[in-house]
Design a protein that fits this description.
The protein has about 425 residues and is α/β, with parallel strands linked by helices. It is built from 16 helices and 14 strands. The strands form two sheets. Strands 3-4-2-5-6-1-7 form a seven-stranded parallel beta sheet, sandwiched between helices. The chain has a seven-stranded parallel beta sheet with strand order 10-11-9-12-13-8-14, sandwiched between helices. Helix 2 (about 25-35) runs parallel beside helix 3 (about 50-65), helix 3 (about 50-65) crosses helix 4 and helix 14 packs across helix 15 (about 350-360). The longest helix is centred in the C-terminal third of the chain and has 23 residues, at about 380-400. The two termini are about 40 Å apart. The relative contact order is 0.11. The protein binds adenosine-5'-diphosphate (ADP) and magnesium ion. Adenosine-5'-diphosphate (ADP) binds near residues 21, 28, 49, 336 and 337.
Amino acid sequence: MTFKSLGLSAPLLQAVQKKKYTVPSPIQEKAIPVILEGKDILASAQTGTGKTAGFTLPLLQRITEQSRWKRRPLRALVLTPTRELAAQVYENVQEYSLFTDIRSTVIFGGVNANPQIKTLKQGVDVLVATPGRLLDLHGQKALSLSKIEILVLDEADRMLDMGFLRDIKKIIGLLPAQRQNLLFSATFSKEIRALAHNILKDPVSVETAPENTAAERVEQQIYRVDKNRKTDLTAKLISEGDWHQVLVFTRTKHGANRLSKKLEKKGISSAAIHGDKSQNARTKALAGFKDNSIRVLVATDIAARGLDIPLLPHVINYELPNVPEDYVHRIGRTGRAGAEGEAISLVSLDEVEYLRGIEKLLGEKLPHNTAEGFELTETKESVKEAKEKAQQNRTRRKSRKTDGSLDSRKTGSKKRTFPKSRNGRVSSRR
Ligand code: ADP
Ligand code: MG
């Protein structure tokens, strides 16, 4: 199978050639002809299998084929859940449209809107956007969505996880009823199917891997280790393995900062990337990581979602995610586009439940490994004791409050209070 036989036009084939893609990936093979026919699509494929080109190439062809407008209204809209992903998809759109006369741009929050507004005024055919900034600029009448012919929801599953459902619905309300809808996702959940049912018209369903499978070429390993030894083990694995370009996941923003600082202290260059960092800091950290000036990028799930770092060899789950699907996404950061990768998870006793959930989703037991000097010493009792102690501290603080005395934060105590979720776990602040 070649890109040409999929029905792509010469300027797009030229761009594909420039990217040195020789054959279409399985999802591209299936999705491109369907989209070229103008049909709605519900597509799922593993991370790193080229979904971006899978929707961008036929999208570009469709809008060049359709009627031309003098004033270049927005005709295609690609929504992504994160700023990094928006920037990355835009980069791809630019590359794939290099030999066409299509104009594209990207808008997302966290940066000055004025340059974005200015570019939009000059006329743009394809817009890549995050939902928040799109609605914001629409509210300011800086853009109109009334001529949109194609809507793409990229990483639709994560959009829902991130609570974008209301925004998506609002945006859809601003689009013409007659349009083509493309929904791409790495995993298919019940929620995704429900969303698809509401948005898509007679969609063609396209799937290339069994649902929710982990990237095949990724070697996965579990290290059972005490919670308080995780930082040392992480440093040891990185130093002794002489690993460069390591992506490490933590569950919280605070945890990401803390780990990054500790690694720096141990002489391992590192940066944290998460939702509380400014867009500049995020862009800088990612650039440093890509050009190898930063060895370790510590990230929360949301920040890391959708990043394309080619040939990333190592991923460490410093903590397991409490949503099993996130595990699949995390390890999808390695072994991209056919390269081999390694994903290591550090699992303390209190995370065993999460591990079970992940193994259930994957339908397999993950292999265990041990590092000398890092054998598990935690016991159910010691974990329980630590939990109880924490609980006691909380109760003490609470009773102090009801006494009419000041809250610990106001009295200047350094003790940190985490918001609790209903099931009693510390909620993940991503
Ligand atoms: P996904 O969205 O499925 O996670 P991406 O679209 O980000 O994956 O693509 C992952 C990587 O594969 C990118 O670096 C991209 O340039 C590359 N890629 C895409 N299509 C092909 C292809 N047909 N042949 C080789 N590499 C490709
Ligand atoms: Mg993608």
